[in-house]
Amino acid sequence: MRVTFLGHVGMYVETEGGSVLCDPWFTPAYFASWFVFPRNDRLDVAPFLKPDFLYISHLHHDHYDPEWLIENIDKSTTVLLPEFRVNHLEEALRECGFSNFIQTEHGAKHDLGGLEITILAMTAPADGPAGDSAIVIADSTARILNQNDSRPRDADEVKNLGPYDGHFTQFSGA
């Protein structure tokens, strides 16, 4: 497994069973008041434009960058969807042109041919019904947790999906 950091919580994960593009953010958000840190505007994105899978953790614009997705990502890419109570994320991604979706079940392991994923859909009070999520990505070489800025309510649930070779999370004052 190889993980390439794209800035903020964005990452490109290459596994034995395929690649997963997670939360790519390149465009300033919220009326240009939020910027990617560290800067990624000079990053060569060509290697990341045809992932096997796309994972967007939630609809905040520092995780979901519709402008960049529309302009750059192959629309035949399969999107991994968290099991949220409402389908706002799927609707937004359909508006971007995506049509291939795998609807996951909260906490269930999904074997995608040499790639195993588990998505934890979270709806903490601060998330609202649209939710937030984390993803476990594994192959025979490694297991990682991409928690991004989700807030698990059940630490044992997260722990029991491990052990992890890497745990990625974000820190901010937001």
Write structural notes for this entry.
The chain has 174 residues and is mainly beta. The protein has one domain (2-169): Ribonuclease Z/Hydroxyacylglutathione hydrolase-like (Metallo-beta-lactamase, Chain A). The chain is built from three helices and eleven strands. It has helices at residues 66-72, 88-95, 155-160, and strands at residues 2-7, 10-15, 18-22, 53-55, 78-81, 100-103, 109-111, 116-122, 132-138, 143-148, 166-169. Strands 1-2-3-4-5-6 form a six-stranded mixed β-sheet, with no helix packed on it. Strand 9 (132-138) and strand 10 form a beta hairpin. The longest helix has 8 residues, at 88-95. The mean pLDDT is 90.
Helix content: 10-25%
The helix tally amounts to 3
Series of H and E elements: EEEEHEHEEEEEHE
Main sheet record: 6 strands, mixed
Biggest sheet: strand arrangement: 1-2-3-4-5-6
* CATH architecture level-2 label: 4-Layer Sandwich
Parts with pLDDT < 50 across at least 5 consecutive residues: none
Number of strands: 11
Indicate the proportion of strand residues: 25-35%
Structural domains: how many: 1
Oligomer: single chain
- Compute the separation of the termini in Å: 31 Å
User: What name goes with the CATH superfamily?
Assistant: Ribonuclease Z/Hydroxyacylglutathione hydrolase-like
Mean pLDDT: 90
- Shape category: globular
CATH class descriptor:
Alpha Beta
Secondary-structure class: mainly beta
